[in-house]
């Protein structure tokens, strides 16, 4: 299988995805939307955040090109912008990272 050559576009896309996954709420939204489209109020309730926080996070994800709005009358739902993103998220969930026991624990965290 030939390997893909990384271009500046690829690097920018991965950077946007990394930014999105760097926040627990945004990561939760992406993981929820890989199952099915959803409304912001439902996502806020499921993730335990305010609707304002959810609105801000969805705006960020839209700006990153990862989700898209689906107007439905007076309501707007959201879905992943690309069907391949669901499969990519599923694959990332299968990755097992080796974490140093003291790396990300309290004041001694050297990962940030």
Characterise this structure.
By secondary structure, the protein is mainly alpha-helical. Helices cover 51% and strands 11% of the residues. It is built from 5 helices and 2 strands, in the order H-H-H-H-E-E-H. The protein has helices at residues 8-21, 24-33, 40-47, 51-63, 83-94, and strands spanning 67-72, 75-80. It has a two-stranded antiparallel sheet with strand order 1-2. Helix 3 (40-47) crosses helix 4. The longest helix has 14 residues, at 8-21. It is globular. The protein starts with 7 loop residues before the first helix and ends in an 18-residue tail after the last helix. The model has no long low-confidence stretch (mean pLDDT 88).
Task: Provide a concise account of the structure shown.
With 112 residues, the chain is mainly α. The protein contains five helices and two strands; from the N terminus they run ααααββα.
């Amino acid at each position: 299988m030939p390997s893909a050559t990384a271009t500046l576009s690829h690097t920018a896309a991965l950077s946007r995805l990394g930014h999105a996954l760097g926040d627990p709420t945004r990561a939760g939204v992406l993981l929820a939307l890989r199952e099915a489209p959803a409304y912001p109020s439902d996502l806020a309730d499921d993730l335990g955040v305010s609707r304002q926080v959810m609105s801000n996070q969805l705006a960020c994800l839209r700006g990153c090109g990862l989700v898209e709005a689906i107007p439905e009358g007076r309501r707007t739902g959201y879905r992943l912008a690309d069907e391949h993103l669901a499969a990519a998220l599923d694959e990332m969930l299968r990755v097992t990272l080796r974490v140093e026991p003291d790396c990300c624990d309290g004041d001694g965290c050297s990962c940030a």
